[in-house]
Amino acid sequence: xxKPWQQGQEITLAIxxxxxxxxGVGRYEQRVxxxxxxxxxxxxxxxxxxxxxxxxxGKLLTIINxxxxxxxxxxxxxxxxxxxxxxxxxxxxxxxxxxxxIEQALIRLAGLANPPIHPTQSLHQPFAYRNKATYPLGxxxxxxxxxxxxxxxxxxxxxxxxCPVQDPKFNALLPAIKQDIQKQGWSIYxxxxxxxxxxxxxxxxxRRTGEVLITLVSTSLQLTNxxxxxxxxxxxxxxxxxxxxxxxxxxxNAIFVGKTxxxxxxxxxxxxxxxxxxxxxxxxxxQVNTEQAEQLVxxxxxxxNLQGNERLFDAYCGIxxxxxxxxxxxxxxxxxxxxxxxxxxxxxxxxxxxIKNAQFHCGTVAELLPQFNGQPDVLILDPPxxxxxxxxxxxxxxxxxxxxxxxxxNPATLARDLRRLCASAYDLEQVxxxxxxxxxxxxxxxxxxxxxx
Length: 453
Description:
This protein is of the alpha/beta class. It folds into 3 domains: about 10-70, CATH 2.40.50.140; about 95-125 and about 290-450, Rossmann fold (3-Layer(aba) Sandwich); about 130-275, CATH 2.40.50.1070. Helices cover about 20% and strands about 30% of the residues. It is built from 8 helices and 21 strands. The strands form 4 sheets. The chain has a 7-stranded mixed sheet. Strands 17-16-15-18-19-21-20 form a 7-stranded mixed sheet, with helices on both faces. It has a 5-stranded mixed beta barrel with strand order 1-2-3-5-4. Helix 7 (about 390-400) runs parallel beside helix 8.
């Protein structure tokens, strides 16, 4: 029988695994303990901070013996900031952990005994990769503007002036913009009182073009000297092609839910991706890791070996990121997307690149897909973290397509959907993990399935 344990108790622990939230996992008296900022192989001293009958969460106090996979984080704020969870873990081990995360989900949740999973596709440079950053804004006890990321599991802002995982051009912009917001005296929104204006600062860059957009998310456009300040930013930073204010008056954490106003320059930047030219606006959804997104498209292209006579469908298509680069290799491309702005941009980007065999439809995938029953030869699924709508999975079981490509950012919902798809209608050919988010526990993957006929 296990001994009693309680909050505040200090114990010694060996870390043996990582969970799907990136925390270290150890066992004490046959019970599980989760500890952030640890690595398998660590021997540590821990204080229990949240205790349940069969598991607990612990706070790392001392590393008695470090894991061979532990390293010194390059960022001094790594332990405080919730933006990265794994800067203290050797990159090679991060890759193996992400492969294992998907493999275990497919075994335990999808019921696949030997899932055909490949090693994680890595980045040559696992830092300085993010093409977009959106920083919540706040004020410290001295009244000074702070911008950064939240501490894990909190709404406390860790103030930053630079970040090693973001595009280096942001490191010059962030402290300068914070100083200018302070100088202008613009008020900062308070979540509790719902007073104040500025909520977020968003920076976006075209990795291939170098063009930068600055976007302030505010409850109001009534910011003194706004146009003058915007013009000063453009003059000071030649790479900045536009300054926008996104008006967001809604209560809650949603960011881009209102209307974007261009204050200076233009409200979009140009980007080059997979040999095509793209227009990106402040609220455009695009993978934050441009280089890995290109590799993902390349692997899809290589695996499908398209012959030119296929009817390709892209469900949850967004602006057509994954499918427009394949359009010249197929007979026709049909995109399905629920967000009207994304559909409009997909159509614009197709026209911009003189792609004439693509059409995009606005609506839910569950509503639209049955209207094209029997048409797709190849279907790309790229759903949000919650996975596919149950109606979509059921339709694909009842009406199998020849080839199915499932792009996922959540191993658990991927496994849930593959369990149903592979039970009767599809064979899983291979799963390839991609490291879109080095220094974090997040992992992207692409699965290739063959329909049974």
